[in-house]
Amino acid sequence: MAGATVLAVGLALLVSSLLVAVTGGSPAGAVEALYQGSLAGPSAWSSTLLYAAPLLLVAVGTCVCVRAGVFNLGQEGQVLVGALAGAWIALRLALPGPSLLVVALLAAALAGGAWAGLSALMHRVRGVNIVVSTLLMTFLAQQLLAYAVNTPWLLQETRRGEATVSPQSNKLPENGLLGSFGEYPGLQVNGGLLIALVAAVVIAVLLARSRWGFRLSMLGLNPRAARHAGVRVAALSGTALAVSGAFAGLAGAVLLASPVGTNRLQPGISGNIGWDGLLVALVARNRPLMAIPVALLFGVLRSGGGFLASTGVPHFLVDVVKSLLVLAFVVPPVLIEALRRRRESRGAAAAEAEVEASEAKEAVAS
């Protein structure tokens, strides 16, 4: 399986190089631009780590719900709702010191969890498909955030004289921002990355060693058996979905409070972090610890992607490369498993035919 994956990744990179050449760019120049923007020095590494943090948070939450057999496609909307809640708390409450940041992060996680929990509630009460409802709730979250930053009494920035008011919030206060370890131009490790790493380790241990993790696995493998074993299927699946939403909401607050942005709530603040975090979990095969290097890889693509314009390569090709890499990591195991099952079914059919032939011979002989 490892050999097939390596071959598929090589093929994906080859196709990516061909696409760069077709669009008039230089494959070698594109690789150099990605490297310069993401890994060439301390400042580039700092940018990569900033992007990796929210990606990892979304991926960790996705690992939880997939383990329970629940498929959440609304991480993008949950990121937006988390950022909205975090901005509201940070701008409305006058709390001293780091307590404001802590409360804002908790509020973002609770908001993201509640937003995902609405889909669990709709499934429980009306039988609405969770995949469909979580996906559609994303568009509702986008409109809700746009309304908030365009309404003066909600979160639109304060008008100063006759200046034009933009659809964004005021900047978060200093005690509502995440700090960093290290100083520019050296390597800076943002606090959001530490939160994401701790979350990945804790969730990995809980999934592997706790009763809760065992019940999630049982639910994901066979809901009927889990129900007979005493697992409250509806409650546990709803909790898994809410936990996934909570991590996505926390990722939204990290985006808002990190130096990666303007520290203002804006309609495009998520920047497809929710979708990319879902892809990180998919490539990591829903293993929280494996999601750490994968999130770093996607952080490299995000951080270095901004440098591609200097080589004449369209920025959207970064999304194409990410899609090809996802296919390279996901498709080979699926194909190998399908071939294995096909061989097993053929072997079972051949064995059954041999038994029937043997029984027929014995019947004729008697």
Describe this structure as you would to a colleague:
The protein has 366 residues and is mostly helical. The protein folds into two domains: 69 residues, no CATH class; 263 residues, ABC transporter involved in vitamin B12 uptake, BtuC, CATH 1.10.3470. Helix content is 71%, strand content 1%. It has a two-stranded antiparallel sheet with strand order 1-2. A hairpin with a 7-residue loop joins strand 1 and strand 2. Helix 1 runs antiparallel to helix 13, helix 7 crosses helix 8 and helix 11 runs parallel beside helix 13. The N and C termini lie far apart (50 Å). The mean pLDDT is 87.
Rg computed from alpha carbons, rounded to a whole number of angstroms: 24 Å
**Total of DSSP H or I helical runs spanning 4+ residues:** 13
Please give the domain count: 2
Q: Class of the largest domain in CATH?
A: Mainly Alpha
CATH architect. name of the largest domain:
Orthogonal Bundle
SSE arrangement, N to C: HHHHHHEEHHHHHHH
Profile the largest sheet: 2 strands, antiparallel
Uncertain parts: none
For the largest sheet, list the strands in their spatial order: 1-2
- Which strand-content bin applies to the residues? under 5%
Give the overall shape, derived from the CA principal axes: globular
